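Lab notebook, bench 4. Still working through the backlog of constructs that have no structural model yet. Next entry is a single chain of 381 residues. Request: give me the structure tokens for it.
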Amino acid sequence: MSRWSMTDGWLKMAAGDGGGMRFLVGGHWDARNATRLDQQLRGLAPATDAPVILDLGQVERLDTAGAWLLHRTRKEYQARGGRADYASLTPAYEAMLEQVAANDQPAEIEPPRPAALWAVLDRIGRGTVEVTVEAQQQIAFLGLLLVTLAGSLRHPSRLRLVPLIYHMEKVGFNALPIVGLISFLIGVVLAYQGATQLQRFGAEIFVVNLISVSVLREIAILLTAIVVAGRSGSAFTAEIGSMVVNEEVDAMRTLGLDPMEVLVLPRVLALVITLPLLVFFADIMGLFGGMLMCWGSLDISPSLFLERLQGAVSPWSFWVGMIKAPFFAFLIAMVGCLEGLRVTRSAESVGQQTTRSVVTGIFLVIVVDAMFSIFFAAVGV
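Model written out:
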């Protein structure tokens, strides 16, 4: 088609030089004529890759809409392997075309946002699925861990004592200062707050009952488990995760070593053995802190404190906290090792899984502690 409309904006083909094609562009190339000119330009599809010249010598008016149509036509022809150039450009038109070309940066269109109700339901559904999958994976890992433990009990020679002692020192002995300090301070706080409230009724002596029952049954075990989850659980995840990143776990499997026996089981057993000892130490430090506070603020002597302590607590008050300790230790170690084995081969994943390990471990500890509280209340302990 060699002739185009001669109305406001027009385009016609003329003879080119050296076998190329020349298109004469004239009239008003503005937003008013953009729709018609767009249809004409989309029908312009040279069958060869001969050079194309867009001659703008007869253009009377050009705005950004017209400049975009010309730029797009040139860009599409160049994308097909042809060569396209402008000719007879005035400085103003050249500047406009350069500006349009410089701002030709395609961006992804943001998908329409769903309604607020659907967005909430979607997040709830996704969260439910994630929690379900997480629970399935934890149960599967628990089964694998129990099978590995049973195999080690049948064949004690497979249990690695050196790593076990090493991890017992790291998660037990090295944790004594922080656990003792926190328990001591909590005992002080309980005594101070209890005394402040009970003094209103002249019942300061019952502060001993408050401290002893709270520390022995709940406070010591719960705070110790939380500290261990943040300290040792995260360390398990970071250590095993770093080995995954460095491909050491894959090397173990290549050598015929089971990572569950080499990495997971010693850490789990070490924490199960040492957490009850840490809880016992936390009990002593919590009661000691409460005793000092009572002696200093309420003039309750240590001998009177110990006398009231014997009458306020029963053996079960002590054993309730101690019974929880192995279960909490098993959960914290299991979650820490599982998240470590989930690490992908990137440093960012190590940090993400370490955070996830701490959060999940503390959450499970609190949930299981609530279940124990309900159980002991039901059986009258």
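Notes after review: The two ends are 98 Å apart (CA to CA). Residues 9-102 form a domain with the Transcription Regulator spoIIAA fold (CATH 3.30.750.24). Flag for follow-up if needed.
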